[in-house]
Amino acid sequence: DKVLMELIEPYELRVAKLREFLEDVKPSLRYDIVRLIDPYGPTITDPDLQCLVVSQETRRGGEAVNKQRLENGLPALALYEILLMQDPDHRENEEEKISSSSLRHRLLGTLLRPPRQDPALPSRPYVIGLTGGTGSGKTSIARLLGCLGAFLIDADKLGHAVYVPGGPAYKQVVATFGAEILCEDGTINRKVLGAKVFGNQERLKSLTDIVWPEIARMVKEQIREAEAQG
């Protein structure tokens, strides 16, 4: 649920920076940095842990950890609560504490890196890929670019188009996943198809191997159309 999660640094880079910071604070201590794959991590299973550092806003999480430890037959951890540093320059819509979410907000409208100069790229058509999570503003930005004269290609719409009867992926999808994915009118029931593939990596890959190349081909066709229109 992080704000602007697309601008969070990769896990490996965050780990490297954290390790560098911890070793700078006290290099004589041993630090184990563990990837959290659930809300509790090793805190509810490691018998050697004695203390959990929490903040005022994460104290309830620490109490939940201790509840799980007691249910697992482990002693409760001492909860050591720290105060969070306040951000004296925070804006009205930002958190009062120093927060990476606020920093990511401030990155909006700035270049993360300068445009890449590649002589192998043609000057026209100039292709911009617009991506992001749900609610990140793709539609609004696309609309603004369209007002500036951009030729818009909606990959989501193309993704729907490949499934329609007579579409480039229709026959192969039906052959791969069976006639039970069809509605009475012969269209593919995307909910039924989704139930077959999501949560099953092998089936999902089978579907994307069929659909994605067709979407890419349609995108390239539309790029050529844009070029022809100047």
From TrEMBL:
An MF annotation (GO) of this entry: ATP binding
InterPro entries: Depp_CoAkinase, P-loop_NTPase, Rossmann-like_a/b/a_fold
Keyword Nucleotide-binding attributed: yes
The UniProt record lists the keyword ATP-binding: yes
Gene Ontology BP, a term: coenzyme A biosynthetic process
Keywords per UniProt: ATP-binding, Nucleotide-binding
Highest taxon above the source species: Eukaryota
PANTHER family: BIFUNCTIONAL COENZYME A SYNTHASE-RELATED (PTHR10695:SF46), DEPHOSPHO-COA KINASE-RELATED (PTHR10695)
Protein name according to UniProt: COASY synthase
Organism in which the protein naturally occurs: Eolophus roseicapilla (Galah cockatoo)
